[in-house]
Structures are given as structure tokens and as C-alpha cells.
Amino acid sequence: MPCAGDPSELQAAALRTQDRSFMTLYAVVFYILAAVILVATGLAITRRNLVHAVMYLILSFFGSAMLFYLCGAPLLAALEVIIYAGAIMVLFLFIVMMLKVEAPQKKVFPARQWLPAAGLGVIYLVVGALVVFSDPGSRVTLEAALATPRIFGQYLFQRHWLSIEIVSLLLLIALLGALYLGRTKDRGGTPEVEDQS
Amino acid sequence: MLTWIAGFILLIVKLGLVLGVLLLLAAYLVWVERKFLARLQIRYGPNRAGKFGLLQPIADTIKMMTKEDTVPEAADRIIFLGAPAVVALTALLMFAVVPFGPTLMIAGRQIPLVITDLNVGLLFIFALSSLAVYGVALGGWASNSKFSLLGGIRGAAQMISYELALGLALVPIVLLARSLSLVDIVNAQADYPFVVVQPISFAIFVIAAMAESKRIPFDLPEAENELGAGYHTEYSGMRFGLFFLGEYVHMQVFGALVAVFFLGGWRGPWLPPPVWLLLKIMLVALIMIWIRGTLPRLRYDQLMALGWKVLIPLALVNIMVTGAVSLL
Amino acid sequence: MATAWESVRALASGFATTFKHLWRPPITEEYPEYKRPLPVRSRARIILTRDPDGAERCVACYLCSAVCPVSCISMQATESEDGRRYAAWFRINFARCIYCGFCEEACPTSAIQLTPDFENCQRDILKLVYEKQDLLVDHQGKDKEYNFYKYAGVATDVGAKGAHHREEKPVNIRSNLP
Q1: Cα separation, B114 vs A142, whole angstroms
Q2: How many structural domains comprise chain B?
């Protein structure tokens, strides 16, 4: 994509979309990405090897990042890769590697456990489909737009500063909680040594 | 249509040039490193293959290409085969946003001397450098050997820790340049390079960058006297070569990034801009080799303490001070 | 603050040291062009030496073969008409030899000795199996004087019983007088 980030090109693409009703290149890419994300996520939740599951989840996050880029939000795409694919999944992988978790044996969950989950899933699917197909907005093609980091930042930090502060407070509390849990009771020695004695 | 084809051809030419120069430079950076390190240790270094050992990289490449590519029986085959590519690929891709000259005007057409000027170029680099962890971690895990696994775990922990310091060190640069695009950052240094106003950021960035590229004194993931060769113990032939290539391309990329963020990028008198960028990359690389020749490897707790207790708080304070000064 | 200054100074002195080394001429000895004379007792290719009279020293006692940790020495003992023991054949497989020098230490006659000559690679591994004629040399090696049969008390061409160094006359078994 030599000039996918070019706003004028995107606007031209949007105009072309409105002119004709058949699938544009962008729509094709969108559906391919969507399929990749769905398949990768499906594989991620069915793998028994945890590292493989993590890999598929990374692939799924990658797809989402590309979807963001396609929709004109390169900042979100980059953040998705950095935070989700790059940091959180590395932590997952790290823990899987550290604990050396063996793949669990194949077992059948009792119906009491999976029936409510399946029921909720079906309801969610039906409601989602109804919302998508009843909303007239779903039939109008998406207007391509480009959110540069500057515009995105101004929107976020000028219009929604209070929410940002509340969320950051939440993160601070989580941080303090982790600090409290990780603190050793006695500063003199490590707890492992105390447990052994 | 014609302009589109012309643009496409131009892009391919630029890609080819950058890739060629990068790979050639990576091969000869190995030679430079071996020579320079040897002189630091009062040795000659390679001097058999060709004059001054200049054919050594070619000999090494032939050796690695013709070696048997073994896969351990207990390894996770697909991940094992793919992991080296992740390391080399992420390192090479980072160069896509590095500008190596001002916009040229040839026959009335603007030719930007950068492969792609992303408006989130800096974040693109972070995304790739955070993905580079997977090459190390998965390579170590898939080998199914305890040394490799330990190397992979160490690599993952180290790279995650220093990623933060790396990112925070660059926030003041973004504050000063008011853009995430690398082209704009270089343009913002027209009057003076940012190292003059951001020496602390510069120091943090260089240390974190060395930790990211897993070089001595931060080479715990491959600590040869404890872990064999760490995460690439089980690799042989060109797959090991890819890890090696990734490391040296990483060195160049970080040289280029230090140049772009702190030393004014391609700016410099008399010489053409790409030459200046190359000179700065080589300067950073030589300093990295000098550091390798001088400092011993850190202990693991020292590594973590340096990252979390020194570099990150320092970077945060630096951001606050820079923000306050630029508001005044 | 004082410790910070200390560590900066320590770092700087380290970098200064390596920087100074950069300008020193390398001390490397370039091997094929310059071959450093090795000490006589350095351990490499094994030889079988002769005593000062020119006879073989080896008495085929199998001690070297027994002590060899990689079992690379083999031989067959036999005896000549004049009473000397010697090896009918003697074979060292240098492809297995680890040059530990145990054979030299075990040898009672100073026959087997290690020499500083280490340049004996072969492309064909079987060429590294040395037979007796490859091992036998025409000098005394490191031990110039020693001649086992002059002390041995065995009647050979070197001397009859009682004629050896520091040897008393044989006891007359047909008489019980002192």
C-alpha cells in the first residue's frame, strides 16, 4: 500500500464507494481481515497447547490493528500492536513459559457448565445480528476518514479528560494493589526462606 | 495510472536500495565489530580471508548457508522454523520509517527519501520492537531445551522492561518536535540536534536500546557461559544466521534511531545527507562495540533494578521537566 | 552522590583502559608464519625412543596401554633370543589420543614419550593410526642416559646376572653359606 495513509486517496476511495455499490478494494480487504480475525480467535480458544493459543490470539490482535489502520486510525493500530500484541501477550507467553503448563487432557465439561454460556452466546449473536440488520447505518458504506495522532489526542484529552482521569485512577489503584500484594511481610528476609524454616 | 506506476517503481527501487545497503552493512558490521573488538583486546581479528579479512563476511555466509539446518526432535517444528524470521523481519521493517535525506526534486516530481512517512512512525518502531520479543521468546520455547527456554524467558522479561524506558525516553523528543513522524522529528532539528537539550533522554535511550538489541552488557538471554547460547542454542545454519543478522540489523536500526532522534538525522554540512546518516549509524555502532569491549555482563537483578528503579523514574522526571519547560 | 561519582569514575577508567589498548600493537603470534618454539615437555605426538646403545627401550609391559584413558594404545609382547622383551607390534590411534601424557608417566623404561610436534592432522582418519615403525625414533628423547636393561637384573646382551648397576652377585642356591 504505497499511499494508503494519504487522506486525499482515502477520500477518493470513499467517493468511489458512494458512486458504485459493488465491493471496493477496501471492502475486500476489510472482509478478508475480518475472516482472518474470526478464524484466528476461534483457533485461539480451541487450542490445547497454550503457546499455540497465544500465537493465534496475537494473530487476531494483528488483524484488529490492520482493521484500525484500514479505517483510518493509524494511532489506534499502532497502540493495539504495542499494547496488546507487544506487551500483554508477551506477558501471557512469559507466564506460560515460566509455569511450563502442560496441555490439559481432553475432557468433556458437564452440561451445567457450558449450557448457560452457550445460551448467553446465542442470545448475544441474535441480538447483535438484529441490531446490525435493523440499523439503516449498517447499509450505508463507511465514510473513510483519517484520525491523525494530533486530532485524536485533542479529542481524547480535551473532550473526555474526566473519563481519562477516572480510568487512570483505576489503573493507579491496580498498581498500588499489586505493590501491596507483592510486598514482603518482613523486610529482613525473603518469604521463601521463612517458609522453609 | 502512469504516475501510479512511476510511484510504484520508485518505491521498489527505494526498497531494494535500503534492503541491499542494510544487509551489506550488517555483514560488514560483523567484520567491523570483530576487527574493532580485536584491537581493543590487542589482537588482529580476522585477517585471513582476503586483504584485512575483508572477505570474511562472505566466507561466513557461505559457511552458514551450506551448514545442515537441524531441527531438534522434541521441538515445536513450525514455531521453531519461524522464530528466526520474526527477529530478522522486525529489525528490517523498522527501517521503513527512517528518513535518509530531504525530499528530492527530480524532473518536477517530489521524491521523499524515506520509504514511508507514517504519521505514527515512532509508534510503528515501538510496535515492531515489541514484536521482536516473540522471535526470542518463541525461539527459546520451541527449541524444547532448558537452556533455550531460560534464554527465551530472560529475553522476554528484559525486552519488556526496557521497552518502557525506551518509550519514555522518547516522549520529550515528541514534546519538542510536536510530531510522531520521523521526518518531522528530523526537520525539527534544523537548528540544533536534540542531544544538546535532552542529554538525559539520550543516555536513557542508548542504554535501553542496547538492552533491546541484547548486546553486552545486556546479553543475558544468550549468556554463553551460563546458557550455552541462550535462546538460539539449538539453531544451526542459516536459521542461526538469521538471528545473527537480526542482531546486527538491530544495531544499525538503533544507530539510525539515535541519529534521527538525537543527532539530527541526515543533517550535516558538506556531505550528502544519506552519507551523514550512515556516518552517524557507524559512530553509534562503534561506540556500542567499544562498550561491549569494556563492560562485563550485568547480573539479572542488576539488570532489572537498572531498568525499573533507575531508567524509568529518571525518564518520567525528565518528561515532567521537559513538559514544564515547554509550557513556560 | 559520592557513590555516583565513584561509579562514573570507575566507568571512565574502564573505557580509558580499553581506549588505550586500541593504540597498542597486537600481541598476536600469527601461527603458520611464526611458529612459537614450544617447551620440550609440551605434550603432542607420541614417540618410542631408544636407549643410548641404540636398542629399543620398550619392554612391552602394557602399562601405557592399561593407563590410557581412551584405550588408544595396543601392542603384542614377545621376547628375543637373548632375553629382551619387546613389542612385536605397537599401535597408537592418534584419532583417539587425548595427549594426556599418562602413558609417559606410567612407562618404566622411558620408552614412550610425548613431543612438542602437534601438527599432524590428516584428512583420512585411518592415517592417524601409527604403527611401530612410525613411532620408533633414533634418539633418546628427553631422557638421555637411562638404559633399563642396565638396571633390570635380567640376563640379556647388556650383561649377565650380577653385572648390572648397583647389583649384587647372585645368591648361590647350591650352598647355604652366607
Answers
A1: 31
A2: 1
C-alpha cell at A68: 484500525
Residue B301, amino acid: D
Does domain C46-156 bear CATH number 3.40.190.170?
Answer: no
Architecture of domain A1-103: Up-down Bundle (1.20)
Question: Which residues of chain B are within 8 Å of residue C11 when distances are taken between CB atoms?
Answer: 295
The pLDDT, as a whole number, for residue C104 is 92
Q: Is residue B269 part of a domain?
A: yes
Given a contact cutoff of 8 angstroms between Cβ atoms, the answer to whether C92 and C118 are in contact is no
- Going along chain C, which residue ranges are E strands? 46-48, 73-79, 85-93, 112-114, 129-130
Q: What is the pLDDT of residues B5-38, one digit of tens each?
A: 888 888 888 888 888 888 888 888 889 998 888 8
Q: What is the pLDDT of residue A140?
A: 61
- Taking contacts as CB-CB distances below 8 angstroms, the residues of chain A near B156 are 90, 93-94, 97
C42-91 pLDDT per residue, tens: 999 999 999 888 888 888 999 999 999 999 999 999 988 877 888 999 99
pLDDT confidence band for A39 (50 / 70 / 90): very high
Residue B327: the pLDDT is 83
Distant-in-sequence contacts of B43-46, Cβ < 8 A, 24+ apart: B43/C26, B43/C27, B43/C28, B44/C26, B44/C28, B44/C30
- Measured between CB atoms, which of C14, C24, C30 is closest to B295? C14
In this complex, whether B and C touch, counting 3 or more CB pairs under 8 angstroms, is: yes
**Cα–Cα distance, B118 to C90 (Å, whole number):** 77
CB contact under 8 A, B116 and A5: yes
Do B44 and C28 count as a contact with CB atoms less than 8 A apart? yes
Domain span at B81: 22-102+117-327
Contact state of B39 with C21 under an 8 Å Cβ cutoff: yes
Domain limits of chain A?
Answer: 1-103, 148-189
